[in-house]
Structure prediction request, 511 residues.
Amino acid sequence: TISLLMQLDILVLLERVFTISVLRETECFLCFFSRSFYTKVSDLHSELYKGPAGMANPLVAFTLIKRLHSEWLNVVYSNEALENAQGRYEEEEPELPKLEDLQGAAKGLMRLQDVYALQVSSLARGRFQRVADGEAVDVYMPAVSIPLSGDDCFLVGKVAYEQEDYYHSVQWLEESVRLFRGTRGEWSPENEGTLEDALDHLAFSHFKTGNVSHALSLSQELLHYDPMNGRVLQNVEKYEKLLVAAGPPRGDGLRRPTSTYLRTRETYERLCQTQGSQPMHFKNPRLFCDYFTNDNPALLLMPVRREVLSLQPFAVLYHDFITDVEVEDVKSLAQPGLRRSVVAAGEKQATADYRISKSAWLKGSSFSIVGKLDQRISMLTGLDVKHPYGEYLQVVNYGIGGHYEPHFDHATSPSSPVFKLKTGNRVATFMIYLSPVEAGGSTAFIYANFSVPVVEKAAIFWWNLHRNGEGNIDTLHAGCPVLIGDKWVANKWIHEFGQEFLRRCSLNPEE
Prediction:
């Protein structure tokens, strides 16, 4: 997905596209449509982006990406556009969002819908609500809300439909049909879908979920608009025969798609929905907060505020680990190198839907900001974090619905790329929160049953391996999807080798 920080750049690009292309073609019919479109986009987004709240809203981000991809191109290539004007717009196309960006944004909305149990009807109104005890409850109240159009909902439903994910396509297309009906089927030049398209996709989605009666009624409604559509006529005949043969409707057959992490999905989502720690977990009297020096002379005059989060696995939070200036320096260094994050796939690395983010790796000398952070990490942990005993600093930015499903940081297979450094497995993780997040984005430890909300400028440290070198299964953790905000983190993975005399083995081989 497109990073939320890139949206301001997109707005600048949008204005440049219109300035270069539209104003030069002052006599063509396209000018009227393009100027109207520009006015519409500007009116919708200029006020939203004056503050950080609007910029962090995934619904705002999705609609902007959609307008710059689908709607703008629909205006450019409409029948009203003259051929001699199209060439100028084609020159700008490579810099505009691609189809994969738009699809990724749509998938991000569906991910937020699932993990935070959000109602599609509320999302369409620009709200973030779930049903609790039969009533709609605000999960988060955005400072700026933007409703979705019938075409917006159609696009999300179509993305699900094309993946044969009828659980999501039914919900989003139902909302699309409702909104299209509200406009009495009026069509705008920038729209990709119509009421007929939404009815067509929704009817088949209901059929695939076993709701044949709904599929029939929607197909019959579609015939009012297109009475000579042979395919729909055949479908109506097919549905009528099925209803006669099957008897009464089977009811709602909507089922969420299966997941690789189905066994942990319920716990994972519960931990994400609490948007913070589990009260029972943190009632443990053995957990504490203190000013920590690790017996390091450099920390004696300025100890770090340490919060012990868990004893099994041992995990701590260091507050105010990094300064505002250092955060901006790290983000500036990482921005040019951000690429889609990958995961270990056997001996190779590849992108995966269960990890949605962009990342960059930063090397650093002892005088650079990265070198200074390495030195500070070493003082707090007592470990050697210099390469190759520690991996280079990884900076990660999460976009719309950005997340990382339950996983281990340490390698669980001898063929893992983690061992390419030839310094053993990842013994520990040090993760720095570089930015605040309004809602979502917690780090959830699944088996340990606690989650850590994003604390700006703080850092989490935990041990991935037991002292005997075996992986600690209680470190299974996940990055919850970002609901509202722009999440930046920096990861430092520390390896076994180089720590032999800094973290000694225990006399107990089982420890």
